[in-house]
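::Amino acid chain::
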Amino acid sequence: MLTSTSLNIFPLYAPPRETLRGLREVGFGAVDFNYCDYAGDPGLLGAKFAAYLDELGAAGSETGIRFYQAHAPCIAPWHDAAERARLLSLTDHCMGTAARLGIQWVVFHPLTEPGFLPGYDAPTLLETNRLFALDMLQRSRGRSGVAIENCGGGGRRWFADSAAELVALVDAVNDPLCGVCWDTGHGHMARADQAASLAKLGAHLKCLHVQDNDGNADLHLLPLAVQKGVDWLAVARGLAQAQFTGPFNFEVHNAFRDVPPELFDTVLHHAGKLASRIAGLAGNGER
C-alpha cells in the first residue's frame, strides 16, 4: 500500500522540489493537498499560485510522488453567512487545483445541520447531503471524485459519523465519482469500531485521513502519540477486509506544529516508518 501525507505539515509555498524529495526519501509516495488548512492564507489566491502549482506538478513528476487527494475547505456551524459563502467559493478554486494536479478525490465534510447552507435545506440531512454532494460533483465536472468524510465526537451525534450513514449517502447519490473518506481520529471520537466500520465501507472507501487522538479532542497526531488512542491493529484489519487500494494517508499536522527546524527531518523520518509499518499490516494480512 502506498503511503502518503497531507502537505499541511509544510507552509503554503514551501519549495516544491525540496519538499517532495524529502517526502520521497522517507518513503512517502503520495500527497494530499489540504485546502482546509490553507483556506485562511491570503497567498492561496495570490498571483504566484499558478506558478507554484506548475512547480509542484513538475516536482511530482520528478520524484514519482502522486497527487491522490485533496481536502476542500471546511464549512462549520460557527461560520457566519459571509464566511460560508467565501469558503464555498474557495471550493471552486480547490476543484480547479485538483484538476490541474490530476487529483483523483476531493474530500468534503458533510453538512451536519438543517439549513446549514442556503440552497441545500431539505426535510432530512440525508437528502440535504445528497443535494450537496451532487452540487460538488457538478462543480468538479467529472475531473475529480467527491469523498464525504466521517465527522464525530464532542459528546453528540453527527450526521455521517457512522459507516452505515456514509454508505446510505453514497448509495443515494448513486454516482461512481462519489465515495467516502474515513478519518481514523474522527472515528475514534465517535467510538466507532474501526475494523467493522472500514469493512462495511468496502468499495465505497476511496481515501483516508489517518490521525491519532485521545478520543476526546481532534488532535491530528501521529499514531501511538497518546494513551487510549486509536486501535491501529483494528484499522489494519478493517483496511484489509475492505480491500482498500488507495494510499495510507496521514493528516497529522499538529505533530509538526512546534517541532524545531533542527528536528523536523527526524519527526518526518519517524512518520514515514510508522506509515509504512501500519500500511504493511493492512497490505499483507498481518493482524
Observations:
- The chain has one domain: 3-108+179-283.
